Amino acid sequence: MSKGEASISDEEWERFQREAEAGTQGAPEEPSARARMVTRRLREETARPEGWRTHQPARQRRGKGWYVVALLLAAGLLFMALDPGRVTDWFSGGGSGDTPLAAESVRPDQPPATESAAQQPTLQQPFRGSPAARWGDGTAGITVPEARATGWMSEAQVSQALDRSRDFLAASNLDSGVLLGQPPEKAIALINPKQKDVQDYLATAFRAPSKDADPLMLFSRFATEKVRLVGDVVKTRGRITYREGKRGAVEVTTDVTYVYPVAHAAERSDEVARTIVRREVVMSWDDPAKVITEPGTFSLVSYKSDTTNGGCDNDTGFYVPEFRSARTATGPGADRQVDPYDRSTSMNARMQGADDTECGTATRS
Q1: In a domain, 97, yes or no
Q2: I need a surface site. Which of 36, 69, 291, 343 has the fewest CB within 10 A?
Q3: Residues 84 and 138 placed together within one structural domain of the fold
Q4: Does residue 309 sit in helix, strand or coil?
Q5: Which of left, alpha, beta for 313 (phi over 0: left; psi -120 to 50: alpha)?
Q6: Residue 2 contacts residue 52 (beta carbons within 8 Å)
Q7: CA angle in degrees (0–180, nearest 5) for 30-35-37
Q8: Residue 286: which residues within 8 A CB-CB, separation 6 or more?
Q9: Are 53 and 167 in a shared domain?
Q10: What are phi and psi of 15, to 5 degrees?
Q11: Cα–Cα distance between 227 and 153 in angstroms, integer?
């Protein structure tokens, strides 16, 4: 029994049993603290303790039934006290599908279960019918490992590098201004300005986006004249890992899936679609004694992006999601089936067999 909870005497408990057996109107409800004790003892002992069998006269066969009813009632009250949300979900039809998932510490061994096809998203519930309903909000869905001294960095420096790596993910994939088309200045400021090829790529991608210089490889952006974001939550699931890289650098790998609910730009439209993006970004936090860099910045090692419902054959620099009312499954690679929520394979395996011209068909959204 935890501190601050009231207990009851054996006399009060016996009165409760007598009145329950007799069917007395207004019999007192079992206090939750006692209910916990009963549940624990019934679980730990095969035979009911002798002292708890009082007031069950053999001549009253119905007494045993009332005793069972009283225990069931007590168990029900205990369950409601411990998990009222679950009871509410049962009556509202929510079920256990909204229970948050534990953080992803390792790659899962299978895709998440398929939800009912009837559970379509709405403006009020944009993640309805999606595994993302149980994912974290924003950076809460990104697992950051415990820091330890690695390469040229102390434990404290590694911790700072991990935090800044997560900051880059937030600034490039979660920032509301960036999502609505503003320049990702905070994210770019974290990239080593001395890494000339990357800086040239970024400059070209935002000035004249193309297949060869696509800002969507690193940043999530939507054209506001076409769509609007639904709500202010982006669901995420993924993790950050690190190891010692070249020249003693701390190499950080981020593998995260982002789910963006959107609606038509017209306010009167209530149809909701989801764009799902899985990104793997590898960053190198270099030793300034060995690599030319600016303090607090990283060098890009590699980046991969796999997008569902972001626009097939799209080189506009913005995601162009389709909606159910106009969705098609044609184009190169349309027969390639892709589950956008499947995180059980590596990004390398995910990208095998696909090229920039293939769109594929998502098995769910």
Answers
A1: no
A2: 69
A3: no
A4: coil
A5: left
A6: no
A7: 140
A8: 192, 247, 249, 293, 298, 299
A9: no
A10: -65, -40
A11: 44
